[in-house]
Amino acid sequence: MFIFVLLFLLSCVYYVYFRRMRKPLYELSESLPNTGCLPIIGHTHWFLGGPEKVLKNIQQLASLVEDSGGISKVWIGPSLYIVSLNPDDVQKILENCLQKDSSYRFLQNWLGNGLFVAPVDLWKAHRRVLLSVFHNKIIDEYVDVFGEQGEVLVERLKEQINKPEFDVYKYITSCMLDIVFETAMGEKMDVQHNPDTPYLRARNAVMSIIGMRLFKAWMQPDVLFNLTPYSKQQKENIDLTHKFTDEVVRKKRMLHEKNGPEKNLGRRDLLQLLLDRETKFTDEELRDQVDSITIAGNDTTALVISYALLLLGCHQEEQEKVYAEVKGIFGDSSRHPTKADLNKMDHLERVIKETMRFYTVVPIIGRQTQKELKLSTCTVPAGVGCAVLPFAMHRSKRIWGPDADSFNPDRFLPEASAKRHPCSYIPFSYGARNCIGRHFGMIVMKSVLANVLRNYKITSSSCGRLKIEILLFPVSGHMITIEKR
């Protein structure tokens, strides 16, 4: 009996201590509008259910936040998040909070301390090196790779001419994997002709498990996750992807030590360029960086291209404008796009930008305050999570006007863009920790889309329902039909 009383008293003392230490959080929470917060569990119930339901709940939550002035709170169990849809506050968060939110830890077993998930101090050191590798002049050297793989894609799509609708994402993601493998690692994988490989199966399995874990509260504690069969499955598949990258890194390291940087003539892949830098990376660090580049560079870009085709299939007048533009550049030539060609594709670039607004493939950005941060209606203590919702911001009628739900590439004419707040449109995030591959992404999207659209006329129906699985996916796929131009 004494033991039970003692345990009860200790629990009471701990609870009082716990509440006292977190008093600033509770005071902050009480100062912000209530958006459906329940006792103890907070907003955890918003994140229960499948990926389609979770996305709908996030949209509903965003609507409540916007109605309450653009800034509010979300409690996920004992963790407090500040949610903002106000561009001024979003700018402060993304400029001042460089630490990724704790939810990104689910990616660390896979991507280690790669640029995407690295702690701030390590990220700063590595970012400086990687910026030189992702210099525009270096990325422009890969334009031939984009054109070659785009040509393979056009050839592969021939099997779908005048056939029933099909999911074009399967073709686009294979094309992008070939591009990313060749530019990041110098490996010609030929995924477009061999899409079902052990590496790709393992990669997709890991993405699926991490996506599931992010939005299932009971799967988030490691202690509970490790009791499930998913833990073993995730480890086996991560080990398989690491083995592949480790072999490439070892091979490149041996060649580099044998030949030296001065003998690496011609176009070099990003891994070679990292080996040439004065800052020396270990093999594990190189693997982390290359894996991060491969994962981040493929899925996001492939999704935007697929959504662009879907939207152009629904908006034939916009498709014809793009076709006229690329036809004017290439005529009847079947040559690959050059850098000069890509620079002329102004309307296509606006289509891509409007696609990224309409279907923001990274719907949520999570950061954590490292010091006190003053926002428009509150002051956030250190150690608090901040959630930015680009998907909701990009559809906000308050920011984009009453026609925010319509597809209009002319929103991105220079004179229109100049009038907007810099954080009203953040498909590549914003601030020092924005997407390092944004130039790579834009030119590869223009190159691949130009190749497809000058060869095929696209038809599609509405995208319909969406879901969140880390990234934004359509429930029924990117379904289109094609016919030869």
Automatic annotation (TrEMBL):
It is a peripheral membrane protein. This is Cytochrome P450 4C1-like. Keywords: Endoplasmic reticulum, Heme, Iron, Membrane, Metal-binding, Microsome, Monooxygenase, Oxidoreductase. May be involved in the metabolism of insect hormones and in the breakdown of synthetic insecticides. The keyword Membrane applies. Its cofactor is heme. InterPro entries: Cyt_P450, Cyt_P450_CS, Cyt_P450_E_grp-I, Cyt_P450_sf, Cytochrome_P450_Monoox. It comes from the Eukaryota. Transmembrane segments: none annotated. One of its GO terms (cellular component) is endoplasmic reticulum membrane. It comes from Bicyclus anynana (Squinting bush brown butterfly). Heme binds at residue 435. One of its GO terms (molecular function) is iron ion binding. The keyword Oxidoreductase applies.
